[in-house]
Structures are given as structure tokens and as C-alpha cells.
Amino acid sequence: MTDVPPSKWLVSVDDHIIEPPRVWLDRLPSKYHDVAPRMVRRGKEEVWLYEDKAVPTSGLSVAAGKRKEEFSPDPVTFDEMRPGAYDPAERVRDMDRAGILASVNFPSFPRFCGQVFWEAKDKELALLCVRAYNDWMVEEWCGTAPGRLIPLAIIPLWDPRLAAAELERVKAKGVNAFAFSENPEPLGLPTIHDPNGYWDPVMQAANDLEMVVCMHVGSSSTMPQISTQAPHLASLTWGANRTSGAMLTWLFSSYLQDLPNLKICLSEGNIGWIPYFLERAEQVLDKQRHWAVTGAMKSYTANFGYPDQGKIKEADPMRLDVRATFRDHIYGCFIDDVAGIRCLDLIGEDNVMVETDYPHSDTTWPNSIEHLSKLVGHLPEQTQYKIRRGNAERLFQFTAVEPAGAA
Amino acid sequence: MTDVPPSKWLVSVDDHIIEPPRVWLDRLPSKYHDVAPRMVRRGKEEVWLYEDKAVPTSGLSVAAGKRKEEFSPDPVTFDEMRPGAYDPAERVRDMDRAGILASVNFPSFPRFCGQVFWEAKDKELALLCVRAYNDWMVEEWCGTAPGRLIPLAIIPLWDPRLAAAELERVKAKGVNAFAFSENPEPLGLPTIHDPNGYWDPVMQAANDLEMVVCMHVGSSSTMPQISTQAPHLASLTWGANRTSGAMLTWLFSSYLQDLPNLKICLSEGNIGWIPYFLERAEQVLDKQRHWAVTGAMKSYTANFGYPDQGKIKEADPMRLDVRATFRDHIYGCFIDDVAGIRCLDLIGEDNVMVETDYPHSDTTWPNSIEHLSKLVGHLPEQTQYKIRRGNAERLFQFTAVEPAGAA
Predict the structure, then answer these.
(1) Are A25 and A33 in contact (CB under 8 A)?
(2) Nearest by CB to B290, which of A69, A292, A304?
């Protein structure tokens, strides 16, 4: 247990669950037990089997507590990871140790926004799997520690009406947030600018039910590559690209212009790049919007060999206010980001939260609260409070429960 | 003429030339006059003809002096642009008006690093065209105003030995910088990590001759697209992605580890994103380099479906120092970047320069010096001097000539 008193602990808006083996078996009819997601041992490995997929757990996903020389992307088994990765009671003990008051967790086997169920052949089963995951998340994971473990749902990405219904179903169980893709296009799904408004039912429901749209970096199932020969460490460093693209495509979307209660959260994207891209968005809008609304766009697209987009759903650039749209709709979070904190006023202190990324290799655990103090300890007390806890409680609509009798 | 005295003017390390019609016709044997680059009138348009290409000038490239409502990507003719776009004496008058002491200019018809000659069928002619451009740059463009217009060469990208020879040839004429691609792969050229060291002769020559490798944003002939349906203004805002990728791939390259005098300049990439990516590079290196040098990389690449890279040329991660490598080798520049200036110490005040992007649509002309003062006027005088002028003079190895009898 950290020496910091619980009243000074942080809320982490991005951590990760390694699903325990029976999440789906416990909830699906037995006729599905040989195709539903299930954990089996194969030689020295443990893998998730689901339809024709066999997926091990990467060591980078369960690096918490290991030295840098000890973890790698090589597959690991449950024996080799901290129980806090998959057991909610153990998780809370690990949170206590690092000064983590509350935690929002993303899925692992389903991937960051449930892509694995969208890729499944049997969509009837996949829908049951989505619901089973959400029920497990609410009842077992968060049910273990209300006010400490905060629920995040997944949706059936292949059917926006079913997805809206699932949002309504889990909202009634106290869920205020769900995972979405930073970029649905590489998944083979329509974008948020789809002329036919594919995502309208989902975003309308998110607006009406006040559920946060959480987009984790990597939820497009893409890894940036600077070039096919770029060193992997260089491309890994480039990862927040996906998040900056997500922020910009939403900033210029019609959804944020049309749906006043819609909030998006850029999960594990860090924040140090936000000031530049907000400033740049203002400049581009100021200088280029005049021709962008005229027929001159044809010269632009022809010049770069772009296909005609048709009539996409996008913000009216003549009435788009970049700063106001960001302030009212977009939230970022950081793990370790001196540059972002330096420019906090250029982002907005009401729009920034912290995360600990437990148990991934980037985690600050077990020194999360001390680490945060080093990063933000020089800021005014009220600003620290917002970043540490207040903004997350407001956005995810909960009040964190401080453990009694702790330090 | 600005009221600011010339001793307080700025050096711009990124501006643009619209080549006058006879750059190549004046220098190539007459047998090439019907295939070499030449400007012709076609109805209302003026286009460059070269082999089977016909290329007009985009209005965004010559927006200087126009109101935002007046310019667009629609093609324009010489009559519709300021003479300063193509005439060196007129350019100097425009520079005087905006407080621009000296200016480094990139090509337009050849594209930012001479891609058009690499794409040409007749490589013998293309080589003559490269040389003709460089001769024109030195003799006519910069010859008009020594110490005001600073030369930048292009190279025959298709033959690194010829390219090294061209560097040697133009170095003897006083050229200290050349244009290179931010990412040669989309051009169909080997990357800087090519296992066979395709670019070795060029980078060795750049190192030995102390010639700056200038990589203009867009010199990969790519335009970022967040998705095929993302609003173009969003994707335009995302443009510096290409530059951040270039910075990172070089940071992790073997060239900067092996060639002590090699300097790279990230032209028109702005700087506000640099602090974040430097910090992130340090984090990734610190946490992930241990497994990156072992066989565990195979699990990583397999997990993401990456093809095997083979033995690429890359920095040894165990002895890579991100901050020192940046400080000793990498330079950035900005047009209008509050976030970048706020974090100047995280970048390094010796590595930042200013640009005016004349005559492109992003230009600060005719208020360049006043604009810069607003951005950096609060900094110590010595820091302002470095950004305004000193760093550029040092990197490009020249002493700017202040106009006599000016304000």
C-alpha cells in the first residue's frame, strides 16, 4: 500500500483486463462451448480458441511488475502474469499499492473495441459473446469493487441498431462508457463520415444516454509503419499518429457539431501532440476553408489523385470552432508526458485525465501516484485535482470510493 | 519596406520558387527542346510540359498577397501571381517588405526533392535537367542577390553515385544544402535503412562535404489521409505526420550514429509535435529496447503480420541517445507555432529556425517579421537571435547580407 492517503489517489481511465478463462463459457449455452472463446493449453502455450482463431497473450500485455529485461512480445501463460491482470480482487490490491483509486479497463482477447467479434463468422454467437463480456464486466469485474472498477462496454460493431440497443441495455446496469474504433475503415467498417450515416444510431444513443465514446490507440487494428524498413522502435514511437488522426477526423465530423452531449475519449494516445494539432487545425481552417466549400475542391483532389468522396458527413467548416468543439467534446489522457503538461492551458485543464496502463509494458505501476506527482505536482491544487480524479469522475459519471482504513 | 531595421530581420529556411519558363530551355542542347521541361499556354491555362507530363501551377502555391477568399487549388498563370514568385530581383523586394533577410528556396515543377526527374523515362536527359536546375539556382536565382538568396540543390535520386558527384560539383559553387525525400519508399526508391546501403554514397558525401539534408514535408509525394472519407481539412491538418515519421526513422537510423557531420533539416514540418515525439522516443527506447535486440522481435512482427525486414541499417538501440542525436543532427523550423515555442527548451534553442513559406498559402508574408516578433518576442534576446537568424546561418554556412540604406 502506498504511503499517499487515498484522498490523493488517482483515477486511471485506461487500464487493461486479461480476461479469465471462463468469461464466455460461464455465460453461453453449452451448445456453443466448442466454438465460443475458451482458453486451452497447447504444449507450453495457453491460447484463446474462438471459431478458427488461436490467440496467445503477448508478454507486452502483462509486463506489470517485471523488469525491462524480463518482458518481451513472446507469449505468456497465466502463471507468468500478476493475478491483478485477470482477478478483480487482486487488481484492487495492486491499485491500492500504486495509489490508483479507480480504473477503467479495456478488453484484451476481444481487442480494444471488440474487433474479434466483428471478424467472427457466426454473428448470432458473436452478439451473445458481446453481451456476455458486458455482463461479466458489470457483474464480476466491476461488481467486485463498485466505485473502484468502472465499467466499459463493447458493442456489436456490425449492426449499429443492435449496438444502440446494447448501449441502452448496459446503461440500465450503470455503464456510462463504451469502446469504439479510432478508425473503423481498416476494420472494413464504414467511417464516421459515411454518407449513409452508418454510425448514426450508435452516436445518437451515445448522445442521448450520455455514454462516452472511448477510442483506444490501436483500436483500428493497425500498427503505424513509417516505412516497411523503418526500425520497429521508430514506428512504435510513432503510435500516437492513430490518435491524432482520430481526434482530427472527429473534430471535423458532423457528429460533434450536431450532438451536443456526445463526448469522445482518446484512450492511451497521450496528449503532448494535442496543442500542435489543435493550433494547426485552426490555421488550416482559417486559411483553407474558403476554397474547401467551393468547387475548387475538385482541383485539390485531382491534383493528389484522390477518388471523389461523394457527400460525406462532415462539419460545416464555416461555422466550425476548433477550440470550442475540443473543449465541449474531446478528452485526452496521458501516462508520462512532460510536453503535454507544459502546454496544459493550450489543451484545457478540464479535458485531460491520467492513466496507468496496467498491466501493459508502458505502465507506471507500482509507482503510479508518485510518478504523477512528479509530472503535475507544480500545478495549482485545483488543477491537480481535476487531472488526478475530478475530470474522470465527471466524464465517466461516478464517484470514486476511497478504501476505508487505508494509509 | 518594413519599419523593422535589417539587423532585426529573419532568415527563412523554407520558401518556394516558381521556376520561370526558360530554366531548362536556356541550358539544354536544342535537340532536347521538345521534351525538356517547358512552359506552354493551353487555352486559358499555362502548363509545364515534360516528356508525357502536363503540369499546371496550383493556386495554393502562389497565394502570397491574396486574400483567403481569393486563392484556391485551381490552376493559375504567371499573370495571376506576384512576380516575386519567379523573379529573384522581385523576390528580394518582397523580402525587404516583410523583413526577410535571407531565404532558402525549394523547387516547384521538379517537386520538393526533384521527384519529377526520378520519374522521367530518359534518365540521361533527367540528369541534365537536375544539373540545369542547380546551375540556374546558383547563377541566376542566388547570383542575383548573394547573401540574400541561399542555394539549395537537387540530386539525381536514381543514382546515388551520380548524386554524390553532383553534390561535389555544386559544393564547389558554394551550395551547402540539398533536397532529399522525407520518405523515399512511396517514390519507389530504397529507404535510408536499405540493407544494401543504397543511400550510402549520398549520405557519406553529405557528411564529408558538410551539406545539409533538407526534407520538405510532402517530398514523399504523399498526402496523408486519415481515411478515404475523412474531411480534406482534417487530413490537411494531419500533414506534419510525414515529418514526424521522417524525424523518427532518421533518429533510429545508422546514418546519424555513424556520420558525425551529417545534419538533417525538417523543412515545413513545424515543431510543436517534436517535444512529444522526442519524449516518447526516449520512453520506447528505455522500455522496449531490451527485447528489440533479441529474437523476441519475431513474436512482435508475427503478431502484427509484418513481413520480415531482414538486416536493415539501423542504430544500435543499446547505445542510442535520443536527445544527443537530435541535438547534434536534427533541425526543425516553424511558420506559426505557439506550442512549439512554448516547449523550446524541450527541443533545444540551437535546433529551431523560422520560415515564411513564401509564396504558398501558409505564408506569413507580408507581415513575417511582425508575426515572428509576436511568437518569440518574449524570449531572451540571444534566443531570439538564434531562431531568427543565427541557427540558419550556422547550419547553412553563410552570412546574411543586410541591405544597405534600408529602414
Answers:
(1) yes
(2) A69
For residue B351, what pLDDT is reported? 98
Structural domain contains residue A296 = no
Residue B294: pLDDT band by 50, 70, 90 thresholds? Answer: confident
> Which residues form the domain of A22?
6-28+82-222+233-274+323-395
Average pLDDT taken over every residue of chain B: 96
What is the grid cell recorded at A359? 498491466
CATH of the domain at B61: 3.20.20.140
pLDDT digits (tens, 9 = 90+) for B296-320: 777 777 777 777 788 999 999 999 9
User: pLDDT (tens digit, 9 = 90+) per residue, B353-364?
Assistant: 999 999 999 999
Question: C-alpha cell of B64?
Answer: 502570397
φ and ψ of A16, to 5 deg: -135, 140
Q: Residue A358: enclosing H or E segment and its boundaries?
A: none
Q: For A71, which residue in chain B has the nearest alpha carbon?
A: B291
Cβ neighbours around A324 below 10 Å, total: 10
In the block, which residue shows the cell 451515445? A206
Q: How far apart are CA A15 and CA A143, in angstroms?
A: 17
A103: nearest Cα among A378, A379, A369 = A369
Spatial contact of A334 and A10, defined as CB atoms under 8 Å apart: no
Residue from A187, A209, A210, A214 nearest A198 by CA: A187
Distance CA A263, CA A254 (A): 13
**A287 domain residue, yes or no:** no
H or E stretch covering B394: helix B391-395
Quote the ipTM score.
0.97
Per-residue pLDDT at B405: 63
C-alpha to C-alpha distance for B388 and A147, rounded to whole angstroms? 54
Residue of B nearest to A287 (CA): B68
Does any domain span residue A313? no
Residue B185 to residue A285, Cβ atoms within 8 A: no
Using only C-alpha atoms, chain A has a radius of gyration, in whole angstroms, of: 21
**Which of A228, A317, A361 lies at the smallest CB-CB distance from B307?**
A228
- Residue stretches of chain A with pLDDT short of 50: 407
Q: Which pLDDT belongs to residue A406?
A: 53
Q: Does A245 reside within a domain? A: yes
Stated pTM of the model: 0.97
- What the block records as the C-alpha cell of A78 is 497465466
Cβ–Cβ below 8 Å for B317 and A71:
no
Averaged pLDDT for residues B224-236: 95
Cα B349 to the center of its chain, rounded Å: 20
Q: Residue B236: CB partners within 8 Å, gap ≥ 6?
A: A284, A288
Number of domains in chain A: 1
- Cis link prior to A88 (omega < 30° from 0)? no
Q: Using an 8 Å Cβ cutoff, are A86 and A80 in contact?
A: no
